[in-house]
Amino acid sequence: MDYVALAVPFFLLALFVELIYGWVVKNNTYRINDTISSLFMGSLRGTSKVLGIGFAWAVWSFVETHFALWSMDTSSVFTWVFSFVIYDLFYYLFHRYSHERQIFWASHVAHHHSEEYNLSTALRQTGTGFFIKWVFYIPLFAIGMPSEVFLSVASINLIYQFWVHTQHIPKLGWYELFFVTPSNHRVHHSQNDLYIDRNYGGVFIIWDRIFGTFQEEQDSEPCVYGIRSSINTFNPIKANLHIYSKILGEIKNAKSWKDKLYSPFARTGWEPGLPFGSTKTGSFDTQAFSKHDPEISISTKFYAFIQFLMVTVFALFFLDGGDLTYEQSVAALVLVIFTMFCITQWLDGFRILILEASRLLLVLSAGFLLLQQGEEFLSNLLFGYAFLNLLVLPFLPRSEKDGPKSSEFDGIIQEASIKNKG
Ligand SMILES: [Zn+2]
Ligand SMILES: [Zn+2]
Question: Distance (Å, rounded) from C-alpha 356 to C-alpha 55?
Fold first, then answer.
């Protein structure tokens, strides 16, 4: 059974408790822009469900049915304990490759963009994990792990990893020796030279100790969270796709065929022209690092937050639990992702009035389409939402001081209209 969906309300409650605790002890680890971005990425993980990508399960059940060496007894405690431990070993290998090789890093990097570290970082999951992840777990089905046991131990493993994403829990004594903890996972999320590419474990830290990838958190070296080549945006689409785009660029532009073929499997940080196995990464200057935190007005923050709440409600009620047709689900998904994109453009400090107006037009069109299909309640909801947005939009900051930048997309649209007039 997949327990993750059941755990989501507890995750959100824990986030709230951590936020309040941070305020009380005057060590708040949350920023609204970063948290919204993380939660968006958490909800994107559900997109593969909507798109119906069951490829991994098709491969796994094929292996389970035709190639399993033997069949484990699901009623035996040994099966469950063995499966839990062996799954974690394969998780370690998968996670380590997810950092060390470009094509796997492309998918996993989304979890590491945050330059803050709190429980919302745990929910920041990749939206493209379904592409490649399945390859790593084929051996588990080949040794006869039943799919229901796999699903259960995989979801318990993921749920365990939630609580370690916090700065409020110190080192935990003997527990640090065997298990993944907030302290040793803080190291995993850090860019410091001492910490980078360390502590890949999911539940047990013993794999890192055995395979030489363990590093203890040091008081003398405070963690600096995030990734080395920061993308400086809260846009979840770019966060999910930028390394794939780097790989495609390398395949296109590399001078030799060897480099083109090697690029996806190269070590993270490799570039065409460098010897195979090497990377370009230099040392990291913790003092020179500054977080991506553009200044935006309170009203824009409020607008972004309201949009975020609406998207969350919409996603929860209509995408996950609703009875939309497949076409309606895909259309809703496009609308939700476009809305996420627009909100993060506001959070990045862009004034995107043209994009925002196009988005509201799309919402209205979706409302009319639903009305034609007899979905009166849904269409009224969308009309009401678009109307409220239109009421607020004119009051968002227009002065240079409050909204200095236009989005590159608004810029492109304006440039095109000037050219057309000319
Ligand atoms: Zn990682
Ligand atoms: Zn993590």
Answer: 36
Cβ atoms of residues 350 and 410 within 8 Å: yes
More confidently predicted of 251 and 42:
251
Q: Which residues pair with 41 in a beta bridge?
A: none
CA of 199 to the centre of ligand 1 (A): 8
CB-CB contact of 163 with 120 (8 Å): no
Contact 317, 311 (CB under 8 A): no
Q: Which of 129, 33, 49 is nearest to 332 (CA)?
A: 49
The upper half-sphere exposure of residue 187, i.e. CA atoms within 13 Å in the direction of its Cβ, equals 26
Give the model confidence (pLDDT) of 20-36 as tens digits: 999 999 999 999 999 99
Q: Give the whole-angstrom CA distance, residue 8 versus residue 42.
A: 10
Ligand 1 center to 214 CA (angstroms): 13
The phi and psi torsions of 57 (rounded to 5 degrees) equal -65, -35
Q: What percent of the chain has pLDDT over 90?
A: 56
Give me 285's structure tokens.
Answer: 């200057």
Higher-confidence position of 337 and 198: 198
110 φ/ψ angles, rounded to the nearest 5 degrees? -55, -35
pLDDT for 43 beyond 90: no
Tell me the three state secondary structure of residue 113: coil
Note the pLDDT tens digit of each residue in 50-87: 555 577 788 888 888 898 888 888 899 999 999 999 99
pLDDT digits over 260-308, tens only?
999 999 999 898 988 888 787 678 888 889 999 998 888 888 889 988 8
Distance 114 CA to ligand 1 centre (A): 12
Ligand 1 centroid, distance to 96 Cα (angstroms): 8
Q: By C-alpha distance, which of 291, 409, 405 is closest to 349?
A: 405
The sign of the dihedral angle between the CA atoms of 321, 323, 326, 330 is negative
Span from the CA of 99 to the centroid of ligand 1 (angstroms): 6
How far apart, in whole angstroms, are the C-alpha atoms of residue 169 and residue 166?
A: 7
Distance CA(341)–CA(94), nearest Å, equals 29
Q: How far is the CA of 252 from the centre of ligand 1 (A)?
A: 28
Ligand 2 midpoint to CA 229 (Å): 18
Residue 317 Cα to ligand 1 middle (Å): 31
| Euclidean distance between CA atoms 280 and 277, whole angstroms | 10
